[in-house]
Design brief:
The chain is α/β, with parallel strands linked by helices. It is built from 11 helices and 10 strands. Strands 1, 2, 3, 4, 5, 6, 7, 8, 9 and 10 form a 10-stranded mixed β-sheet that branches. α10 packs antiparallel against α11. It is globular and about 60 Å long.
């Protein structure tokens, strides 16, 4: 990443991995922003194997004052030490930006005043740690755009107590205030999925949350790694993440709400486990049995997890 010779007010956090079909939509959303302050886009390409890097270089050359890319030659996401997060966090710290906006390479912004509206609100309301807005949802398989439906609706103002009951914030809608120590604390909790929810919770300990009731971005549903993961893995990841959060938050009431989430997820996990067991019992052929044995490893992990929860 080239050295930034001026201090932007906002740094855009943009993670890219094999997002070639979507990147131009994403980057045009950055370029069209109309602001009375400088901003930069830290675009981190995690050794994409498609044409993503070429598109990033195209925009870097055309808009050098906005695009400050990081090009990896080795995939960092697969490394267990959280190096992907550490590299991005260091780059954002180096900008000195007061605020961070989020948008991954397969999502995009639709309102040219999005950043200006969010920054104006945060500047006028220092008691808020982050703000977000409604998004429209693009169904990956059909190309249909629908109103927001993936997360539950919330009023204008909410707090960490609301967020502890479950995530309702879409990543491409967020602008948050940078606080000393938050990124470092987040890094220590890696790896965790969904990681963005952990960040929102750590920020919500510092201030309130505000929602703009207008859609200013599009979220692609069904195109990401998380969307395509199976239910059992999702439950395992979320339970582990919620347990990490419960261990670090200060409020006993927040810990209680997180524990309720964990209990609910554990019950859902038990149901999924029973479904898999029933499927295995129906296996008859030797080929199917061999396939079934490959499923036993995650089931044994589930058994251990459920025993710990008792």
């Amino acid at each position: 990443m080239d050295k930034i010779d001026y201090k932007p007010l906002v740094a855009i956090h943009c993670f890219v991995y094999n997002h070639e079909p979507y990147l131009r939509d994403c980057f045009e959303g950055f370029v069209m922003q109309q602001t009375n302050f400088p901003f930069v886009a830290i675009v981190h390409d995690d050794a994409s194997t498609d044409g993503s890097a070429a598109i990033i270089r195209e925009y870097e050359e055309k808009y050098p004052h906005i695009f400050k890319p990081i090009y990896e030659t080795e995939n960092q996401w697969r490394k267990p030490d959280g190096s992907l997060t550490r590299i991005m966090n260091a780059a954002i710290d180096a900008t000195g930006a007061k605020y961070v906006a989020m948008c991954e390479g397969d999502d995009y912004w639709t309102d040219p005043l999005k950043l200006q509206k969010q920054v104006d609100f945060m500047e006028a309301n220092p008691e808020y740690s982050l703000c977000f807005h409604r998004v429209n949802t693009l169904i990956h398989e059909t190309g249909e755009i629908k109103n927001e439906f993936v997360v539950r609706d919330m009023p204008g103002k909410s707090t960490i107590l609301d967020l502890a009951d479950g995530n309702y914030i879409h990543t491409p809608s967020v602008l948050y205030r940078r606080y000393s120590g938050v990124l470092e604390q987040y890094q220590k909790m890696m790896p965790c999925l969904p990681g963005d929810y952990v960040m929102w919770m750590l920020l919500a300990e510092r201030g309130d949350i505000y929602k703009f009731n207008e859609p200013m971005a599009v979220y692609r549903y069904g195109s990401g790694v998380w969307s395509n993961n199976n239910n059992i893995n999702n439950f395992l990841h979320v339970i582990k993440t919620l347990s990490k959060l419960a261990a670090v938050v200060e409020s006993s009431e927040v810990r209680r709400i997180l524990q309720e989430q964990i209990n609910s997820m554990s019950n859902d996990l038990s149901s999924e486990y029973e479904k898999v067991v029933m499927q295995l019992k129906q296996v008859q052929s030797s080929r199917a049995y061999r396939l079934g044995k490959s499923i036993l490893k995650p089931i044994n992990m589930i058994k251990k997890l459920l025993k710990k929860g008792k």
